Amino acid sequence: MASPALAVRPALALGRRRVVDRAMSVLFVAATVAAVTPLLLVVGYIAVQGAHGLSIALVTQLPAPVGEPGGGMGNAFVGSAILIAVASAIALPVGILSGVYLSEFGGGRFGDVLRFFTDVLTGVPSIVVGIVAYTILVVPLRSFSALSGGFALSIIMIPTVARTTEEALKRVPLTIREASLALGVHEWTTILRVVIPTGLAGIVTGAMLGIARISGETAPLLFTAFGSAFWQQGLLKPIAAVPLQIFQYAISPYTDWHEQAWAAALILMLLVLGLNVAIRAVTRTGFRTVR
Amino acid sequence: MATTAPESRPRRPPTRGLLGGASVPDAAFRAVALAFGALVLALIAAMVAVMVQGSVHAIQRFGLGFLSGTLWSPNDRIFGALPFIYGTVVSSLLALLIATPIGLGVAIFLVEMAPHHVSNAISVLVELLAAIPSVLLGLWGIFVMVPFLQRTVEPALQAVFPGVPLFEGAPYGVGLLAAGLILAIMIVPTIVAISRDVMATVPVAQREAMLALGATPWETTRRAVLPYATSGILGAVVLGLGRALGETMAVTMVIGNRPVISPSLLEPSYTMASVLANEFTDATYDLYVSALIEIGLVLFGITILMNVAARLLVRRTARVSGRGER
After folding, report:
1. How many Å lie between the alpha carbon of B75 and the closest alpha carbon of chain A?
2. Which residues of chain B neighbour A124 with C-beta distances below 8 Å?
3. Is B245 helix (H, G, I), strand (E, B) or coil?
4. Cβ within 8 Å of residue A263, ≥6 positions away
5. Of all residues in chain B, what percent carry a pLDDT higher than 70?
């Protein structure tokens, strides 16, 4: 790897080496521009296109029958909120307590294994998560349902919450724990009353990151939540969701639907990017969001 | 593996308790936390079990021929997965080919060149790119990128490379090229984030020594930083590949969804994830469902392998440069 060129022919090359150095710098800047450009293009395009179709009806009305103008996807916004709530109800306790385990007791072998597989879980394709949720909940209950959709989303949310909680609690200074323990406070009381409250901002960050991550997920909902043209009818019935609706409208042939898809995309994008920006603004130190 | 702080943390209050140091409530609390941790592992085991269980029917019926069969015809009860495997692999490799140099370039810019505040700002932008939901990239892909490819890029490619099989056929816009591009956009943030972190762990002294010998910044990066970070960067790339292989929505929206094997990047294709997205709810009989789940199982297996390999590679770099976990 390390060729001896530098040592052997120093004089030959200084000019050329400087040129190469410049050229490489230009390339790296160009790569950076190339990486950021799609973000600006996509965000800009969705903002412009979406602004056209924004209306109150979009978030308050049911979809109009095919061919009729107007209507909205209020049911999808309600549905997404319910799906996120169900997912959080499952993923927050599991994720936070796993995070507590990893941070407080996870120094050993089992902690390593758990940490490793939690990371691996983030890499499982979301469509596979959908199949799993379908098999575990949709088949036995004989219906697509909000419950199965929320469960699928929770599988995606758990690793984010767990690892962020772990990071947050590990930042709680050791001295604070020792002070509490030295006062004769039980370990579990110390964790619940001292460590967790101190790291709370980080845990909330994890929850927000998790919600940002799942609010745009579509693939795991295709055969769990399934989508619906009506207002929600309970946790055991199919339910609409914004990303599903955007997908269905985008691949439809109707320009009316396309316009609604752009508008809904704008709202979803503002929510997801807003959450991400808010997280960064709140936590100066920054948590890992890409794993 | 743990950072130094938790290792030096006292495991339990040393003086108290009935159970070898830990009091009953402490032990109970620990058991609860452990149970939730174990639940995560059980979840992963359950996922494997569900996927294997669901595929058994198709595995018994088709054996290994499933993976090499080129015909996918549910109406005739014939299921060959090769067109989907081909589409998945080619689109992902294309994405990797585009995203690796760009991602690595950005990482070098962030760690080695840019001033601190610029580096932070760009990092945030790249992470925001990762946060954009796949369905929104797909929406943009359908209505903006695909028409642009169809009208401008693909005719240009055909004009520059006439007769090259890679660019033959009518320019549809949708196809392997579109899928590869959209995947590249999606995996650049992964490659940037991981290789940036890995490169940041290379000791500063390493760079200073190189600069002191009269090396230019690029030579420093190439000889003092990159060799240290090689396995971690490789891990970043493999992680990106794993992500590309399993990506569903954006690809489904721009790849054209046709189960054919063609050498041309301009032709429509199909991926394992997209056939699941499109056909799973339409699968009308058991064998069909089972064949689809087997595709999911193959995808699951490949992505798990990629992830395990990638994370081991990243850990190795972290260990070599002595910065604890990750």
Report:
1. 21
2. 47, 246, 300, 303-304
3. helix
4. A50, A51, A52, A53, A54, A55, A58
5. 90
ipTM for the complex shown: 0.91
Cβ separation of A121 and B253 shorter than 8 Å?
no
Cα separation, B321 vs A120, in Å, equals 23
Residue A16 is predicted with a pLDDT of 87
Lowest mean pLDDT among A5-19, A56-70, A274-288: A5-19
B253 touches chain A (CB under 8 A): yes
Given CB atoms, is A152 within the 8 Å cutoff of chain B?
no
For residue B91 the two structure tokens come to 């689109």
Domain membership flag for residue A183 = yes
Rounded to whole angstroms, the Cα distance separating A192 from A190 reads 6
Going by the DSSP 8-state scheme, the letter that residue B78 receives in this structure is: E
Residue A17 domain-assigned?
A: no
Mutation for A interface: B30, B135, B305, most A CBs within 10 A: B135
pLDDT at position B4 is: 41
CB atoms under 10 Å from CB of B97, counted, come to 11
Q: What is the rounded average pLDDT of the residues B186-215?
A: 94
Domain span at A229: 56-290
Set of chain B residues whose Cβ sits within 8 Å of the Cβ of A100: 33
- pLDDT of A94 above 50: yes
Tell me which residue in B54, B105, B277 faces A31 most closely, judged by beta carbons: B105
Residue A236 buriedness (CB in 10 A; 0-12 / 13-18 / 19+): middle
Please check whether residue A266 touches B, CB under 8 A.
no
Determine, yes or no, domain membership for A8: no
What is the token pair recorded at B249? 């929505």
What residue segments make up the domains of chain B, in order of their start? Answer: 81-320
Domain count, chain A: 1
Cβ contact A98–B37 (<8 Å):
yes
CATH 1.10.3720.10 is held by the domain B81-320: yes
For residue A159, pLDDT beyond 90: yes
Amino acid identity of residue B307, one-letter, is N
Mean pLDDT for the stretch of residues B205-232: 93
Predicted TM-score of the model (pTM): 0.91
The pLDDT, as a whole number, for residue B3 is: 41
Residue of B53, B120, B201, B216 to mutate, interface with A, max A Cβ within 10 Å: B216
| Segment (H or E) for B33 | helix B24-62
> A150: distance to nearest CA of chain B, Å?
15
How far is residue B326's CA from residue B318's CA, in Å, rounded to a whole number?
6
Q: Is the CB of residue A100 less than 8 Å away from at least one CB of chain B?
A: yes
- Distance (Å, rounded) from C-alpha A126 to C-alpha A215? 13
Residues 57 to 96 of B: which have CB under 8 A from any A CB?
Answer: none
Tell me the CATH number at A281. 1.10.3720.10
Q: Is residue A43 part of a domain?
A: no
